[in-house]
Every structure is written in C-alpha cells, then in structure tokens.
Amino acid sequence: MAQTHLSATKSQKERVREMEIMNAGMGETSYAKNSKVQLKVISMTMPIIEEAITNLYYNSTSPSSLVIADFGCSSGPNTLFAVSELIKVVEKLRRQQGQQSPEYQVFLNDLPENDFNVIFKLLPSFQKKFSSQLGVDAGSFFFSGVPGSFYGRLFPKKSLHFTFSSYSLHWLSQVPEHLENNKRSIYISSTSPPNVAKAYYAQFQKDFSMFLKSRAEELAVGGRMVLTFLGRKSEDPSTKECCYIWEVLAIALCDMVDKGLIGEEKLDSFNLPHYAPSASEVKSVVLMENYFSIDRLEVSELKWSSMFGERNFSEAVADLAMCVRAVVEPFLVSHFGDAIIEEVFRKYKEILAGSVCKESSSIMNVTISLTKRG
C-alpha cells in the first residue's frame, strides 16, 4: 500500500509540471473571464509598483530603452492592464522632465501550457488603442511571450530593468514530498500533522530561493522587482486567512468520497502545489539570499465584499466559486477526471453560501519591492 500511495503522489507531481495551471480560452469557466480577484489585487498594489518604476526611472539617465518582464502573466486582459499602467507612469515622468520617450520591450512569461494565444489575440487592438492614448511622441513598444518556468533562468544576464509578478509565486514548482499522512485534506489545514506545514514551507523556501537567484542574474544592477503573493498576516500556516477557500474545496471533495464518486485513497493522494507565505517568511528568504535590498514589505487585505461590486450575495458567491474553479480545475481534472467537476463546484458553492459570512471574509496579500544589489 505504501508503495502504491507514493507512486500516486509522484504521478501527481509529474502532472503538475505538465498541466495547464489555469483554465484556458475565453469560455465561461476560463481564467480570462474569471480573474476579478487578481485584477483587484493588481489595482490595490499598483501604488507600490508605480513607486518602484518611478525610482528606477529617476535613477537612470534618460534611458533609451526599458525592458520589463511579467513573471506568471497567465492569460486575458489582466496581463495587459498591469503593463499598460507601468508604461503610463514612465511616460508621465519623462514628459515632466522633458525627456524623449524610451522604447519598451515587454516580456510576458508563464509555463508553456499557458494560453498565450488569448494574449496575442488581444494585442493588436490593445496596441492601437494604447498608442492613441499615449500620443505620437511615445516610444515604440514590443511584446514577446516567454514560455518556461520562472523557477530557473529565462533571460540573458543583466538584460532586464524592471520585473514584477502578481499572484503567481504562491504556486510551487511541485507538490512537496512526504504528505502521505495529510488525510482528507488538500493543503495545510487545522487537522494536518505538523510535518505537512514543514514540508510546504521547505518547498516554498527552495522555490523562492531559486526564483531570486535566477532574477538576480537577469536584472541589471539597480533593477527593480515587485512581487505579490496570496499570503497571510498570521504566522500560523493553517490560518483561515489563506486556507479557507481550500478547506471548503476539501470538504466538497470529501463529500464526493462519502457518496462513492471518488475513492478515499484518490483523495488522500491529492495535494495542491501551493503555499501562502507570511511577510516574515518572504523577508527571511530574501535576506538569506542577499541578492536584493528590500524597499517595501506590506500586507494588504482584500475584503470579499469589495471584490464583486454591488452584486447580491448569491451572485457574489457564484463569482467567487467560479474564480476558484478557473484556477484549480486543471489540477482536479488531471487527478480525478472531469466527471465529478460540476458536482464538486456545485457543492463548493453551496458550502460557501452557508459559511462565507461566518468564516474568513477577506484575502491577505504580501507585497515586497526589491532593488538588485551592486
């Protein structure tokens, strides 16, 4: 039995490397149509991004070109929103100083399985509209897709000036080792044995260290980087601040087990490759690697009530459930098959509706702004 269980866990890790991380396309359950939370987070953290790009520009001597990279760009309009806001800031700054506009090279990175076609199809109309907004004196901008894992090198040495990543680095490169005893749970929960949280944190440390090392090679001295994680204020990794949405999903999957729709062993061999760090955990890895100085480190709170505007309660719950589905459905289909998906998310939505007011009512984000050391 132990060998069979370990084999199932290993096969899940292999699938994590191969699968699409988000629902592709532009359909009703696609990430592109269901990424309101991610857009809200980008908007909330934009002042930190603007501060970093402003400091970069002021510390440069009228740069003729600016190379920007978005790590974990995913697909859909959110990708282009963040980049366009960055370019607007630079254009405003250079006009204030009476300088010539730089040319912009923008690299959009995600795993090879990401639906880059959605982005590329949006580009022609975006570029036409954006060029009109910026004016005739704005520099040219060039977009390129860069498929590959950001837990490794992707660009030549010292070739980037500004990089950012929003809501990507809490996804790990693989499911941690030795989670066989994490029964009827799919992440860290209040019932998880102590080794589970330790295994997740160890994997996060390893992955984030590799990310920092790779970016330190690629960023020019003085280059800036802003990273936002789905995180937590508490030092307890099982807090509902970051675990509630996954606990509800685990309950929905347990309901499938109780109904005989999936096997107990199948559930016990499934764990998400995800870790929501605290601010101190992010800081400790940055200090340990010592490639970057820390300019800002903040925890922000996004209340669920603010995510979906004036929609009524049932519509807001349905939207939240669809956002979660757009992110995790590929993982579930890869492990359990697609036959149970509709029933799982019907149950997920039902549980959310009954408990969302009583439990965690917000999402915590950790944002860190860094400068590449000389």
Please tell me about this protein's structure:
This protein is α/β, with parallel strands linked by helices and 374 residues long. Helix content is 48%, strand content 17%. Helix 3 (77-96) packs parallel to helix 4 (116-134). The N and C termini lie far apart (53 Å). Mean pLDDT is 87; it is low at 1-12 and 14-20.
Give a summary of the structure in a few sentences.
Helix content is 48%, strand content 17%. The protein contains 10 helices and 7 strands. The longest helix is centred in the middle third of the chain and has 25 residues, at 194-218.
What are its keywords?
single chain; 374 residues; alpha/beta; seven-stranded mixed sheet; disordered N terminus
Number of helices: 10
> What do the pLDDT scores average to?
87
Structural class: alpha/beta
First CA to last CA: what distance? 53 Å
Helical amount: 40-55%
Q: What fraction of residues sit in β-strands?
A: 15-25%
Protein topology:
Blueprint: H1 2-18, H2 36-58, E1 65-71, H3 77-96, E2 103-110, H4 116-134, E3 141-147, E4 160-166, H5 194-218, E5 219-231, H6 240-258, H7 264-268, H8 279-289, E6 292-303, H9 313-336, H10 341-355, E7 362-372
Parallel strand pairs: 1-2, 1-4, 2-3, 4-5
Antiparallel strand pairs: 5-7, 6-7
Helix pairs in contact: 2-3, 3-4, 5-8, 6-10, 9-10
